[in-house]
Amino acid sequence: MPKATAARRREKYSLALCRRIQALHPPAAAAALWWLGQSGFVIKLAGRIIYLDVFFSAMRSRRTPPLVLPRHVTHADVICGTHDHIDHIDHAAWPKLAAASPEALFVVPLLLRRRLIRELGLSGTRLLGVDEHQSIQIGPVTISAIPAAHEFLDRDRKTGLHPWLGYVIQGDGLTIYHAGDTCLYEGLENTIRRFKPDVMLLPISGRDARRLKSGCLGNMTFQEAADLAGHLRPSLVAPMHYDMFTFNGADPRRFTAYLKVKYPRQQSLIFHHGRPVIVQKSKSHFLRVVANKRRQAGA
Ligand SMILES: [Zn+2]
Ligand SMILES: [Zn+2]
Prior knowledge:
- This protein is α/β, with parallel strands linked by helices and 299 residues long.
- It has a single domain (3-283), classed as Ribonuclease Z/Hydroxyacylglutathione hydrolase-like (Metallo-beta-lactamase, Chain A, 4-Layer Sandwich), CATH 3.60.15.10.
- Helix content is 25%, strand content 24%.
- It has helices at residues 3-23, 94-100, 110-120, 188-195, 209-213, 222-232, 252-262, and strands at 30-37, 40-45, 48-52, 78-80, 105-109, 127-130, 135-138, 141-147, 165-171, 174-178, 199-203, 236-240, 277-281, 287-289.
- It has an eight-stranded mixed β-sheet. It has a six-stranded mixed β-sheet with strand order 7-8-9-10-11-12.
- Helix 6 (222-232) packs across helix 7 (252-262).
- The protein is globular, with a radius of gyration of 18 Å.
- 47% of the residues are buried.
- The model is unreliable at 293-299 (pLDDT under 50).
- Bound molecules: zinc ion (ZN) (2 copies).
């Protein structure tokens, strides 16, 4: 396809998707989630629109093209990044997002806050930092940090702050855990358990010597992600971080298949790029998935 045509198609798709995000209003006690590839999600919860770990920039090695152009994101209330890798905090895109959504606040690991204010040219009043045992309240939405072990559970030597985080997003009676990039570590399961997440979004790209040697830090394997979900029993678990790069992929069907055999009562779902999933909590605390039912596994 000629370059200009591809660019026009991308532009059209981006505008249409942004309009759909704007127009969809989940009912009470419900959230809408759109997966934009890798660990990138748009979450509409308690009337707020949250962009989380969205990777906007075009890159030759991307297998999933950017679905949304930053200049079309005029409706963001919150933009979160779990750690400073391009597929999670996209330096080229964030200033454009700040301009397109002038009211939006940005949330990053507290350790990175000062440097990111400097490097991205964002104002300190808009770029907020969070660390372990801390939460940020933005209107009706609470964002709490859970440390992540991107291979290692690193801490800054001077401050003890964490460079890698996962976030718990709460609002309208719903709790969503987005793990960021992490392996399992002692204490992670209990920390997550305290929040009683309804939805868990977990990386499944795994890790090995070849990738680590080339500087590609690892994540939990699909089996580890399945065990974590099986132990914590959220209403819904979905895999992420497997589709973007050939060198860092995994088959999400192996995750759902394994989960179905080992934890048959655990509900899971494979997201489709750009297609919304609506989750609604009923009085009996059962989470109903009211969209994207195709490819749903488990009970
Ligand atoms: Zn990373
Ligand atoms: Zn990553």
